[in-house]
From TrEMBL:
It comes from Streptomyces parvus. This is Transport permease protein. Residues 36-269 form the ABC transmembrane type-2 domain. InterPro entries: ABC2_TM, ABC2_TM_bact-type, ABC_2_transport, Nod_factor_ABC_transporter. It holds the Pfam family ABC2_membrane.
């Protein structure tokens, strides 16, 4: 009977191929290995921020320490250097994507069942790991230069976490630019946009020490709230901290980065280039 049924209905349909798991882990590990093989991605943001931290602390602490909370200028300048690390290190994901696009590896991945968001998520996660290491190393240097947060070790962990949260938004923005253009210079423009902004906030002194047009520029600068929040983590006890404005700006940058990445993926899906 089974032979007759087979002859009538035809051979049974082949079993469905198992769905491939999203290889996020292997792709992230590959992106990390690419970072290790590219010193400019791993060391340049850290060394640049460390250089400025040492110079600012060494040359300006004796002049401006009296205006700093607790008399420690490192509480003022370390958050500034961490902020700089967040958006300079944020270019990592974009540069990794540009490298893969240029080598043709990204085009080959595009033809596989790999989830489209994975192609951005993997370099962004690699960038998060690198940025966390950079922020921790820079904070360690701050401790060597006399950093002593009022709230102790938890404040240091929160400071590193704030840097990573802010940097993740920049990583997504850079990834979107890299995916959209495939051009490393365009990815670098993300840093060029935000780097000048960091000098139009309370760069070298607390916000309440600014006056004139610079005070107004700092008031409208989107980098001022996260910078002030990071300084508050070091200089104030937990019950006196107001971190909400800085957290909202960091989340806004994160959402903007995710939206930009979504648009870049949508365009590439439609055009296939």
């Amino acid at each position: 009977m089974s032979t007759i049924a087979t002859a009538v209905t035809g051979p049974a349909d082949p079993p469905a191929a198992p769905k491939s798991r999203t290889p996020l882990g292997p792709l992230t590990a590959r992106s990390l290995r690419s970072c290790l093989r590219t010193p400019s991605l791993l060391l340049s943001p850290l060394l640049t921020s460390a250089f400025f931290l040492i110079i600012y602390e060494g040359q300006l602490s004796s002049v401006t320490a009296a205006t700093a909370p607790g008399g420690r200028y490192i509480d003022v300048v370390l958050p500034l250097c961490l902020l700089t690390t967040a958006f300079t290190g944020g270019a990592t994901a974009g540069q990794l994507l540009v490298s893969d696009i240029g080598s043709g590896y990204h085009a080959r991945l595009w033809l596989t069942p790999v989830g489209r968001w994975t192609l951005i998520t993997a370099p962004v996660l690699a960038g998060v790991v690198v940025l966390t290491a950079q922020a921790a190393a820079l904070t360690g240097l701050g401790l060597l230069l006399g950093l002593s947060p009022v709230s102790g070790a938890p404040a240091l962990l929160a400071l590193i976490g704030a840097t990573v949260l802010l940097g993740t938004g920049f990583l997504l923005l850079a990834a979107a630019v890299g995916l959209h253009t495939g051009n490393s210079s365009a990815v670098g423009s993300v840093t060029l946009v935000f780097f000048p902004l960091s000098f139009f906030t309370a760069t070298f002194v607390p916000r309440d020490q600014l006056g004139g047009w610079m005070a107004h520029a700092a008031d409208i600068n989107p980098l001022t709230p996260p910078l002030e929040a990071m300084r508050t983590l070091l200089a104030s006890p937990w019950n006196e901290q107001n971190l909400l404005p800085g957290a909202l700006v960091a989340l806004a940058i994160l959402v903007a980065g995710a939206a930009a990445a979504h648009l870049a993926l949508t365009r590439r899906t439609r055009t296939g280039v």
